[in-house]
Design a protein that fits this description.
Layout (H helix, E strand, L loop, with lengths): L3 E10 L2 E11 L15 H9 L6 E6 L2 E2 L25 H11 L4 H14 L8
Antiparallel strand pairs: 1-2, 1-3, 3-4
Helix pairs in contact: 2-3
EC number: 3.6.3.19, 3.6.3.30
Protein name: ABC transporter ATP-binding protein
Keywords: ATP-binding, Hydrolase, Nucleotide-binding, Transport
């Protein structure tokens, strides 16, 4: 996991500032909580970090690497959306494993990690 540093981030939608001059450092390996009222820019910020929203103003870093123009697939970030963004044609197990499969994790590790998270979320009984 990398340190995440955001310097002077700003995001405007239809002339309305959603994020203004945000400066934050999230230390490597730390647990971080992002709280705020509905519509205050939490999801927008996460989408900017993940690369799903453009970064027009401010600088975003993973460790010392500036990510403003980095492709989302190169950022190694996963995002769980507030609406149920699952693949209905896949099993629960395959939905849990999806990100690991995209990263081409070896099969043995994929099975181990998937089982770990199925147990952690107490949904192993629904896996298949």
């Amino acid at each position: 996991m990398s340190e995440i540093e955001i310097i002077n981030a700003k995001k405007i939608y239809h002339d309305v500032p959603v994020i203004e001059n945000l400066n934050i450092t999230i230390p490597k390996g730390s647990l971080f909580t992002l709280l705020g009222a509905s519509g205050c820019g939490k999801t927008t910020l996460l989408r900017m970090i993940a690369g799903f929203n453009s970064i027009k103003d401010g600088e975003f870093y993973f460790d010392d690497t500036k990510i403003n123009n980095m492709e989302p697939s190169k950022r190694n970030i996963g995002l769980v959306f507030q609406n149920y963004a699952i693949f209905p044609h896949l099993t629960v197990r395959d939905n849990v494993a999806f990100g690991l499969m995209q990263k081409k994790v070896p099969k043995e590790e994929l099975i181990q990690q998937t089982n770990k998270y199925l147990e952690l979320m107490q949904i192993a009984q629904y896996a298949d």
